[in-house]
Amino acid sequence: MGFLKIDEIHHTYFTKTSATTALSNISLEVKEGEFVSFLGPSGCGKTTLLSIIAGLLKPTEGKVTLEGQPIEKLDNQIGYMLQQDYLFPWKTIEENILLGLKLNNQLTAEKKSYTYKLLEQMGLGGVEKQYPSQLSGGMRQRVALVRTLATEPKLLMLDEPFSALDYQTKLRLEDLVSDTLKSFGKTAILVTHDIGEAIAMSDRIYLFSPKPGQIYKIIHVPDELRSLPPFQARNHELYSEIFQTIWKEVEQVETEQ
């Protein structure tokens, strides 16, 4: 049995005058500790699927289970990292990173200590009393990751978390996030438009086609790349080969729209 199982998901958005099918016949499994990416053009239902997996949206048909349990019956098992850091500007970094624990009534001395260690591991020791406005965009995203990991979720959702950052910061954060998730054995799903990012960070890539969103192709990233940090993976000879292959597939998807 897969750690995360998505079984025959269909989803249609209804209005008074129309029905739009966003997803059709989506089935896949993710093993514990895997990093998979959902790649595809706008309108292919990637974020809708992410919301269904997180239990934020009930699908029209199908089900999602995590460790054999229906996703809607699980509490605090899923963490989100988004394009915007969504830190509260009037709260200190310390208050921001402890917020999830506080809301979940998990704010013990042990959890607090664990969260401070995470902050230090992210290279942010000593910023606890500062406010988000005093930090760079990359630093704020690292704070957001600490806040997400503090509650020790079993599954992480990464919804284009680096797209608002400059390129150098993005590359550094790819390495940091990848290394952090591997060291904690976390399972993660990345939604992205960036082919290079998907190749560099993933074990497996699901390419989606739109109208309605369906799995068009599954790309397995070779072990030679999976064993490398994202920055090094980008410089491997296999990287450009896979990039070209996926680029052609994406063009095919867009042609068939």
Question: What would you note in describing this structure?
Answer:
The protein is of the alpha/beta class and 257 residues long. It has a domain at 4-77 and 153-255: P-loop containing nucleotide triphosphate hydrolases (Rossmann fold). Helices cover 38% and strands 25% of the residues. It has helices at 46-53, 93-97, 99-103, 109-121, 137-150, 167-183, 195-201, 223-226, 230-234, 237-255; strands at residues 4-14, 19-30, 35-39, 61-66, 69-70, 78-82, 155-159, 187-192, 204-209, 214-220. Strand 7, helix 6 and strand 8 (187-192) form a beta-alpha-beta unit. The radius of gyration is 19 Å and the shape is globular. The two termini are 35 Å apart.
The string of secondary-structure elements, in order, is: EEEHEEEHHHHEHEHEEHHH
User: Number of helical segments?
Assistant: 10
CATH fold call of one domain:
Rossmann fold
Biggest β-sheet: strands ordered side by side in the sheet: 6-7-8-3-9-10
Class by SSE composition: alpha/beta
Q: Main sheet?
A: 6 strands, mixed
Measured between the Cα atoms of the first and last residue, the distance is 35 Å
Shape: globular
What is the CATH class of one domain? Alpha Beta
Radius of gyration: 19 Å
Q: Which CATH architecture of one domain?
A: 3-Layer(aba) Sandwich
Number of strands: 10
Proportion of residues in extended strands: 25-35%
